[in-house]
Structures are given as C-alpha cells and as structure tokens.
C-alpha cells in the first residue's frame, strides 16, 4: 500500500482509520489456515436466528428510542429470518399479526406503535412484515381500501408524499407510499400523479438522488427514487448512465459501499447501493436508448455478457421477448403510445411482477465478491451484523447486510428461476440465502404469494 | 408567558401521579394486547409519561401543561413523531413564544442531530418566525457542522432556510471555508453547487462557470484522487456535454494528471466521458494514456476502448463496470461523431 501522510483532513483521517481496521481483519483472515478461513466465511445462521427471534420476544429499555418504529423492528427481524430460509413459529406469527393490527389506524395506514398516528415508513414496514409472514390471515388483515385513502391523504401538492399528517415530504415518503401501494395492488393514477416530477427534482449533479431538491446524492434516497420510478413506469426519465456511474463509485477499497461520496463504508448500503446496482442490470435497454444507441448496438452490448457457459442464448432470448414481458420494453411502448389513462392501471398492476420475471441482460456492474467479503468478514458478528468494525450489531444492519448479501449471491444469474452457481456464492454453498424482490425488498416466494393474493378479484373488490 | 422551560428540572422526577396539577387526568395505558411482539421493557418513568401523554392526546387538550408534558415525552424519545405533531398543535393553540421553542429544540438536538422529527419541527418553527430566525438558523447549522460537517439533515435545513427565508450573502464564502478545512467534504461541494446555481446574488451558473471551473481545476490538481471535485466539474457542465468537451481547462487537467501517472483513475474516467461525447483527443493525451499501459499494440481507432482497458486494470473494484463501458464505447463514440456531422473522421 502506498505510504500515507501522517496527517490529513478530517475526511481522510476517518477514512484511514476505517481502512486500518478493515485491513487488519483482512490480514488476519489471510493468515489463517484454509479450514479456519472457511469457518470464518460461514454465515452463522443459528446464532443470527437466535438473536433475531429473541428480539421479537423481548427488547431492553434502550429500545425506548425506537418506540415509534416498532413495525420497522418487526420487518428487520422477520425479513432477516426469511432471508435465512427460516420462519417464526405459529405463536409468534399470530402475535405479530395481532400486534400489527393494533398499529393499524382506523382511518388506514400503520403507526409506529398502538395508538400512534399512521406514518408512511411504518406502513411500508408493516405491509412488508405481513407479506413476509404470508398466509390468508396475515394478508387479509391489511385494510387496503383505507390504506389507499391514507396514501391519498399524504399526497402533497408537489406530487411527492408527506410522511404523516403535518410531516415531512421527501423521496423516502414517495418510495414507501408507492412500494406499499404497488405490492398491495392499489396503485393508481391518482397516487402516481406527479410523483415522478418530484423524484426527478431530487436528482443531483453527481448522478445520484437526494432526499429533497438541492440536497446531496445519497444511497438510501437513490434506491428509493429508482425503485419508485420503476414502479410507476417512469424510469426512462432518470439519467441512468449518470446514476450508474455514481453508484459504482460508491463501492470502496473495503469492498463495501459508502452512502455518499467521500463518506465511510457502511454494511447497510450493501442493500441500498448494491440493490441499485443489481436493479439497473435489468434496465440495459433503457440505458442504451438513453445513450442513443440503436437496437443493434444494444444486442451487441449484451451479447457476450454473463458467463459464456450459462447464457449463450441471452441476446436471442431478449430479441424474442422484446415488447412482451420486460418492464423496460413496456416503458418504451407506453411512452410511444402516449399516456393513455385507460391502460395505466393495467400496466401499473404488473410492473413489479414483470420486473422480476424479466431476464437480466447485463452482468453485475459492481464487485459482488468484494462486497460479500466485506459483509462476511467485517460486518458479520458472532450473532447479527454491523455497520463496520468497531460498531455494534443491530436489527437494522442485520436486515440490510443480509439483504445485500442475497443481492450479491443472485446478481450473476440470468433469470429468476435458476439457482446461483457455487462460484458466485462466497463461502460454503450453504451460505445461499433466499432471493429478494429488489424493488420491495421482500423474499421472492413471499412476494409471489402476495402478488397472487392481491390479484384475485375477491381480494381486490374492496378497492374497486 | 409561563413557559415550561422555567419549571425546575427537579419537577420532572416527581411521578405524574403525585403531581397535584395532573390529579384530574386518568392515564391511558398502551394497548399492546396480551402477547405483543417486539415488546420494550420501558422504564417506569417512560411508561407513566407516555400514559399521561396518551390521555392528553386523546382528549386533545391544547394547554400549557400539555406543552410541558410533550417536552418530557420528547426528552424520553425524540423520535416520537406523534408527540411532535401534537406539540405543534398545542404551540399554535396557546400562542406560545416560538423563540423559546427554538431553545427547546436546541437542547433536544444536542446528541440527537440525526433525527428527522427535530429538523422537521425546527423548519416549522422557523417558517412561522420568518426573517427573525434567519441568522439564528444559519448559525445553528454552523454549530452542528463544527461537530459533524456532513450532517445530512442540517444541510437540508440550511438549504431550506436560504430558499424560504434568505441569508445568501456569505454562503459561497462559507462553502469556501469548509472546503479549505476539508477539500474531501462532499457536502460542502454540494452546498457550493447549490449556492452557485440557486443564489439570487451570484447570477447563476452562466455567470459563475468560468471562475468555478478554475477553482475546481486547482482543487483537482491538489488532490486528483478526490472524486468530489471531479463530480463537481462535470456538474458545472450538466446537460451541456458539448460545452464540456470544448473547455480546454478540462482536457488540460486530464492531461496533466495522466502525465503525472499518479491517482489518475478519475482523470481517465473523465476522459472516457469526453470521448463518448465526441471529444477528439490530441496526440499528447493519446501518448499519456499509451504510457500508462504496456499494451502498445492497441489500434489507434480504438482509443476509447483502450481507456476502458486501462481502467479495468488500474481500478479492479470497478472492472465489471469498465468492461460494460468498453462494450458500448465504440457505438457511443461513432454516435456522437455522427451527431456532429464528423462521421467521416475516424477516432
């Protein structure tokens, strides 16, 4: 490594300290014999599950500062458990459904705890928790008709959403509202109206997306903005080449992602930034169109993508499928035909579903192996995951480190049905986690169950 | 008025059940159900304070003692947005002194400067106070930045103050000072962009571009590894790629960094963008890039591809990205040349 100066600016000194800590861990890892290395790379499933389940049953007094975020804690824990391929027992499942029922406001939406005002972020967390639990009782406990009323009430004149009555308007609010509406199949033109304009106003000169117009490009908001734009079928309005260039530069020498330019690595951005990187793999056609490239050059760009052994037919498949299942081609079609109101609901209802079922024409644009290494060696604790060495584990980081790990494991396979190759999964193949739907961050089979449930007419009738 | 801030702190240690002024209120326990998940072992003080808050909130009692109660509740959990929202209703109803409200937020913000609710509340108060709060709000964010120069909420608040109330006079100088302290502070670069593009006093990007390019180029020369300054330079030409590729300062700084052969990833990345937009490199730049690679057999016509290949080698973390770019470069380059009517020239 290049010799450093001994003093630097605050940013430099903080960065060097993290590099030293991470470097120390990697050096220690390299010094171990092969069997000890394998052991260290293993996901400590049982320990994580014990830590997570315990949190669902009991939290200490220090959690009082999260007393207005209890559906979030449910989601972080339940989603982590689902990623690990497990589920909670019938009693805990029942207790969770009952508890979230008490967080549901009589006028729609979910609050941070029983009796608290409904809030968009905790609504997103509660909806994702109930979908993660799955089953008729859980899914039917959501009052979708009133939820839609709540979402409409949160709609701001700018086109964005505010978090709660009298609350702040930002990109996080837009995403949580759109994601919940999309997955529950209640997304319509009234909710979508101008939200794309608001998100576009939050793009920054760096290429990423900020929380509010004028603020700094940030990983969390970039994920929220990108996912929401896809779900409302307006992703072609973002400058994707600029966004891609920004996000790939967020992966640092540690292997993990930082949230903003020149900030420190943090395991949670494995999902927020890693998720963005994985999502854009399915947007190649929009990207090529934005670059002014012809379809011929698009096919040229994508052929030879992926590992030769598995995807020699990718370009042909893409050609054959054009205009049918890909949400990306769907985007182009809608634009050409103009915004036909009548076609809107139909299109919106299937965007999330089509997205995950479209092929990935692109190989990963980030380094999946470096990220997995950071997560397994630097973020993983005996039980739970942390931001970075020197920090303590928590449920939030456990959820987003595992989500990021799942993103890494699956980003090299061309379609949703085929399992990852062993070489794409760092550590033993038993490290393989469940796959997530990257736009909602819900485990894929739970998403499919919900999609089916909320598509059925008897379940949607209350909303029409 | 009789602000809650004048009450002695000791009072807060007396249980509500023993305070005579609360004798008429029946506390409302949390409806957690018989078997809640994620149950928190609240302290007795937390439970009792929340029980009294729920009683007052449900009764919609907008009174001075309700304000006092929200203060105590917020101190226990500054993240409870329901309490903050109710507090705003109370503040309005009793026509409270909003300067004192800012004192309260000051104290809560100590140690909680990354909490959404505090900043949203502060914005609400400042909006009501209007111009009377400008200096105080700008100073308040400065104080936060002296501890944490990248505090996201504080920067959003500062931008809101500038746009909604004003106080632009010293903004560019302030950004300049922060960047002198730490040229890697991307939040300060972002604020500089905000000031340059939005300040009503500076004349906008058109008037500022030349001097900003000069400033940025100097910053790049001092720390070519600093991504912030390179992104800022691109930002100065946002949506104006043709002007970017024609600015000799941009190509020159790329050449200088490439020739020095040290920390040149961002210079190569910028050069690649220039090429994709139709920039035609001179021999010096070609030679500088060739000098970075032992692969001298690359045909001249594939200069963009060669830049990508070098990037794949020297920036292994992004090897996948540069490979992807490499696949698209020839099409992009010929596309941009065709757009310029230069398709007969080979690059």
Automatic annotation (TrEMBL), chain A:
Entry EC number(s): 2.5.1.58
Physiological role: Catalyzes the transfer of a farnesyl moiety from farnesyl diphosphate to a cysteine at the fourth position from the C-terminus of several proteins. The beta subunit is responsible for peptide-binding.
Domain HTH Mu-type: 1-48
Keywords: Metal-binding, Prenyltransferase, Repeat, Transferase, Zinc
Organism: Cinchona calisaya
Chain segments carrying region Disordered: 310-330
Protein name: Protein farnesyltransferase subunit beta
GO molecular function: protein farnesyltransferase activity; zinc ion binding
Catalytic reaction(s) noted: L-cysteinyl-[protein] + (2E,6E)-farnesyl diphosphate = S-(2E,6E)-farnesyl-L-cysteinyl-[protein] + diphosphate
Lineage, uppermost ranks: Eukaryota, Viridiplantae, Streptophyta, Embryophyta, Tracheophyta
Cellular compartments per GO CC: protein farnesyltransferase complex
Family in the record: Belongs to the protein prenyltransferase subunit beta family.
Biological process, per Gene Ontology: prenylation
Cofactor note: Binds 1 zinc ion per subunit.
Cofactor(s) listed in the protein's UniProt record: Zn(2+)
Pfam families: Prenyltrans
SUPFAM superfamilies: Terpenoid cyclases/Protein prenyltransferases
Assembly description: Heterodimer of FTA and FTB.
TrEMBL record, chain B:
Keyword Cell membrane: no
Biased composition (Basic and acidic residues): 1-13
Keyword Glycoprotein: no
Molecular function terms, GO-annotated: CAAX-protein geranylgeranyltransferase activity; protein farnesyltransferase activity
Region (Disordered) residue spans: 1-34
Top enzyme class: transferase
Highest taxon of source: Eukaryota
Catalytic function, reaction form: geranylgeranyl diphosphate + L-cysteinyl-[protein] = S-geranylgeranyl-L-cysteinyl-[protein] + diphosphate; L-cysteinyl-[protein] + (2E,6E)-farnesyl diphosphate = S-(2E,6E)-farnesyl-L-cysteinyl-[protein] + diphosphate
The EC number(s) this enzyme carries: 2.5.1.58, 2.5.1.59
PANTHER family per UniProt: PROTEIN FARNESYLTRANSFERASE ALPHA SUBUNIT/RAB GERANYLGERANYL TRANSFERASE ALPHA SUBUNIT (PTHR11129), PROTEIN FARNESYLTRANSFERASE_GERANYLGERANYLTRANSFERASE TYPE-1 SUBUNIT ALPHA (PTHR11129:SF1)
Family to which the UniProt record says this protein belongs: Belongs to the protein prenyltransferase subunit alpha family.
Stated name of the protein: Protein farnesyltransferase/geranylgeranyltransferase type-1 subunit alpha
Organism: Cinchona calisaya
């Amino acid at each position: 490594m290049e010799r450093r100066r001994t003093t630097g600016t605050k940013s430099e000194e903080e960065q060097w300290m993290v590099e030293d800590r991470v470097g120390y861990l990697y050096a220690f890892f390299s010094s171990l014999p092969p069997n000890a290395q394998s052991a260290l790379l293993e996901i400590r499933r049982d320990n994580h599950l014990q830590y997570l389940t315990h949190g669902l049953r009991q939290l200490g007094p220090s959690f009082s500062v999260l007393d207005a975020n209890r559906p979030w804690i449910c989601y972080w824990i339940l989603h982590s458990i689902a990623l690990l391929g497990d589920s909670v027992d019938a009693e805990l499942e029942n207790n969770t459904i009952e508890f979230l029922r008490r967080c549901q406001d009589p006028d729609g939406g979910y609050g941070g705890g029983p009796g608290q005002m409904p809030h968009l972020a905790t609504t997103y967390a509660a909806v994702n928790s109930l979908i993660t639990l799955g089953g008729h009782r859980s899914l039917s406990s959501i009052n979708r008709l009133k939820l839609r009323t709540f979402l409409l009430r949160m709609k701001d004149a700018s086109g964005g959403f505010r978090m709660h009555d009298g609350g702040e308007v930002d990109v996080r609010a837009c995403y949580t509202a759109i994601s919940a509406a999309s997955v529950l199949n209640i997304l319509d033109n009234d909710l979508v109206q101008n939200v794309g304009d608001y998100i576009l106003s939050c793009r920054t000169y760096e290429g990423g997306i900020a929380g509010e117009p004028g603020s700094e490009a940030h990983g969390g908001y970039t994920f929220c903005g990108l996912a929401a734009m896809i779900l409302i079928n307006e992703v072609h309005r973002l400058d994707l080449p600029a966004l891609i260039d920004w996000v790939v530069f967020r992966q640092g020498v540690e292997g993990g992602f930082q949230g903003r330019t020149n900030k420190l690595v943090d395991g949670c951005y494995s999902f927020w930034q890693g998720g963005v990187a994985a999502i854009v793999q399915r947007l190649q056609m929009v990207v090529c169109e934005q670059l002014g490239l012809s379809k011929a050059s698009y096919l040229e760009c994508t052929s030879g993508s992926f590992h030769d052994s598995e995807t020699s037919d990718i370009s042909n498949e893409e050609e054959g499928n054009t205009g049918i299942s890909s949400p990306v081609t769907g985007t182009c079609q809608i634009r050409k035909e103009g915004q036909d109101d009548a076609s809107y609901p139909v299109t919106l209802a299937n965007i999330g579903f089509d997205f995950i079922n479209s092929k990935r024409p692109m190989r990963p644009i980030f380094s999946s192996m470096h990220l997995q290494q950071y997560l397994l060696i630097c973020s993983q604790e005996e039980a739970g995951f942390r931001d970075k060495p020197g920090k303590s584990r928590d449920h939030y980081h456990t959820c987003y480190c595992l989500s990021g790990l799942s993103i890494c494991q699956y980003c090299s396979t061309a379609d949703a049905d085929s399992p990852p190759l062993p070489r794409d999964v760092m550590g033993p193949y038993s490290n393989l986690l469940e796959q997530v739907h990257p736009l909602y961050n819900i485990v894929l089979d739970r998403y499919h169950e919900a999609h089916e449930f909320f598509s059925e007419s008897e379940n949607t009738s209350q909303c029409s | 008025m009789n602000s809650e801030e004048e009450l002695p702190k000791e009072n807060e240690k007396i249980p509500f059940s023993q305070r005579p002024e609360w004798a008429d209120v029946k506390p409302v326990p949390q409806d957690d159900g018989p078997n809640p998940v994620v149950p928190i072992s609240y302290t007795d003080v937390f439970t009792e304070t929340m029980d009294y808050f729920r009683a007052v909130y449900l009764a919609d009692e907008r009174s001075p003692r309700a304000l006092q109660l929200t203060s105590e509740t917020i101190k226990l959990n500054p993240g409870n947005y329901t309490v903050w929202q109710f507090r705003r209703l109370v503040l309005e109803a009793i026509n409270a002194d909003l300067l004192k409200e800012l004192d309260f937020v000051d104290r809560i913000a100590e140690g909680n400067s990354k909490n959404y609710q505090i900043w949203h509340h502060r914005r609400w108060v400042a909006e009501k106070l209007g111009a009377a709060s400008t200096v105080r709000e700008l100073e308040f964010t400065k104080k936060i930045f002296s501890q944490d120069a990248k505090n996201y909420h504080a920067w959003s608040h500062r931008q809101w103050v500038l746009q909604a109330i004003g106080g632009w006079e010293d903004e560019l100088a302030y950004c300049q000072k922060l960047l002198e302290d730490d040229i890697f502070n991307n939040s300060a670069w972002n604020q500089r962009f905000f000031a340059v593009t939005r300040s009503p006093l500076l004349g906008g990007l058109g008037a500022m571009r030349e001097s900003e390019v000069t400033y940025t180029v100097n910053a790049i020369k001092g720390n070519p590894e600093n991504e912030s300054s390179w992104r800022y330079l691109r930002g100065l030409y946002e949506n104006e790629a043709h002007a970017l590729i024609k600015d000799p300062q941009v190509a020159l700084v790329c050449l200088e960094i490439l020739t020095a052969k040290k920390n040149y990833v961002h210079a190569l990345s910028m050069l690649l963008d220039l090429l994709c937009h139709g920039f035609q490199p001179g021999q010096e730049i070609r030679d500088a890039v060739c000098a970075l690679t032992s692969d001298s057999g690359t045909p001249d016509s594939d200069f963009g591809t060669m830049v990508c290949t070098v990037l794949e080698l020297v920036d292994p973390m992004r090897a996948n990205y540069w490979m992807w770019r490499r696949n698209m470069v020839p099409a992009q380059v010929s596309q941009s040349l065709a757009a310029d009517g230069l398709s007969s020239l080979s690059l």
